[in-house]
Structures are given as C-alpha cells and as structure tokens.
Design a protein that fits this description.
12 helices; globular; mainly alpha; 281 residues; single chain; 80% helix
Length: 281
C-alpha cells in the first residue's frame, strides 16, 4: 500500500520509527530542561542529527520500498541512506543519554546496570566494536548481500529483504561506532588508526561499485545494464564521498590534537627552563 506522499505503508517499519522519534523527542525535552544554556546549541545539533537519521531510514525503507523492487539504482540508494546517512547521523547524535531521559527512573537504573563498564553486555560490545571485527563484519555483509542469487532472492521475499536491511544497518552500526565513539563507549582507537580504518572501508565499498559499473552484463534480475551501472556509480561516488568527508574530519581532529600536544609540550619545556633559570641565579 502506497500513500499519497509516495510512502509505502508498512506498519512493521513505520510504527517502530515513529516510536523511536517520539522517545527521542521526549528524552530530549526532559534533558533540555536540565542542560546549561551555553550547551544548548550542541543539544539542538544532537536533536537535528537524530531526527535526520531517522528520517533517512524512513525514506530508505518506506519512500524507496516500491522503487527498490523496480530499479537496482533505487535499491542501492536504499542501502546508502541506511549505512552512509541514517546510521552515522544517529550515532553522531550520541542518543543514549537522550533516550535514557525518556525512560522512568527504574528503567534508567536498570539500563545503567546492563551498560555498566564491567557488565557482560558492555564487554561483548567492546569486542564487537573493535576495528578488525567491525570492519570485517560490515564488509562481509555488504559483499554477501550483493551476491546475485541472494540479492535476487531478497527481491522476491519481503522477509528476506527486511533481513538484508537489518544486516546492513546492524553492521553499519558496528562499522561507524569506533569512528564516532558515542556512548556507551566501545573499543577505543587512536585517531590515526581511525583514518586508516575509514580509508580501507572506502576502498572495499568502491571496489564493489567498480565491479557493478564494469560488469559486461546484468548481474541481477532487473536485467538492465544501465540501471546496474548507475547503482555502481552511487555506491562508488556517493558512498565514497561520505567516507572521504569522515576522513577529512578525522584528519582535522588528528592535526588539531597534535598541535595542542605540541603546544602543551612547549609550555612544559618553557616552565622547566624557567625553574632552572631561577636555580641558576
């Protein structure tokens, strides 16, 4: 069923997204009442990012649902909205504290115990968000779900199609987590390692785009080589652009941290030299 706005009415998708948006808004409102005035701009940015991420997921799963069954390029746009826009936007919103404020006090305390630094859940999460594990899981999901037989099967089965989206979105959460590092914090990594990690991720997704663009015949049931090439260009170009923006931000932060470290070292040396000069008098 398609609405007048072109959105496919899928209650199993629309209702959880609406509930997530309502929960986020409720928690944000409660948190905003307790937030210092000087931090309001950052809090507003978190609200915008969280809602934008949910909106991107809604467009992918509802707005492009019908088109994805007719066009390979539309299907690729679905995937990119999920893994390169929706998931990182939500993680950039650092939503945990906002969501917790939407819960009753008892539930917040229970969540605190589950997500505590020494809890089994937190330990497992640190393992899953280690860069080698997260990178491998996301790359494997991306390539496996683009195997022609499995991809075509997902087009004929609504359940399998939803499993595909869950796998891609879930592994995208793992992939972006060590880069963005929202709460609860997973396995930490230095800025230089994050840069290499994202660059390698860009290379593997670009490689898939090149395969799709350079294929001499249609690989999927759509049976349109131009449509397949356009999907490859989206994967290669748009997906790569998002990755490169992430790399530039990481490089900027890395250089800023290095400059601050050099400045601190200079101040320390100057202070020591001053103390030595006082002793020499």
């Amino acid at each position: 069923m398609v609405s007048a706005l072109g959105l496919a009415w899928r209650p199993e998708i629309a209702l959880p997204l609406a509930a997530a948006a309502a929960l986020y808004l409720a928690g944000w409102t409660r948190l905003a009442r307790r937030y210092p005035a000087r931090g309001r701009a950052r809090l507003l940015a978190r609200l915008a990012l969280g809602l934008a991420g949910l909106g991107a997921i809604a467009v992918a799963l509802l707005g492009l649902h019908e088109a994805a069954h007719e066009s390979f390029a539309a299907h690729m746009a679905q995937h990119l909205l999920l893994v390169a826009v929706g998931v990182p936007a939500i993680l950039l919103a650092d939503p945990l504290s906002v969501v917790l404020w939407a819960l009753p006090r008892v539930a917040r305390r229970g969540a605190g115990r589950v997500l505590g630094a020494r809890s089994p859940c937190r330990r497992a999460w640190r393992v899953l968000t280690r860069m080698p594990v997260a990178w491998t899981a996301h790359a494997a999901a991306l390539w496996v779900w683009h195997v022609p037989a499995l991809y075509d099967a997902a087009l004929t089965s609504g359940l399998l199609h939803d499993i595909e989206h869950l796998a891609l979105a879930g592994t995208a959460v793992l992939f972006w987590w060590p880069v963005i590092d929202p709460a609860p914090h997973g396995a930490t990594a230095p800025a230089g390692a994050r840069i290499v990690y994202v660059v390698l991720g860009a290379f593997q997704s670009a490689a898939l785009g090149v395969v799709l663009v350079s294929a001499a015949r249609p690989l999927y049931a759509y049976d349109a080589i131009d449509d397949q090439a356009l999907g490859g260009v989206l994967m290669w170009g748009l997906g790569g652009a998002v990755d490169m923006v992430a790399v530039l931000v990481l490089v900027y932060r890395f250089l800023g941290a290095a400059e601050r470290g050099a400045g601190l070292a200079s101040l320390t040396v100057s202070g020591r030299q001053g103390r030595m000069n006082r002793f020499d008098r």
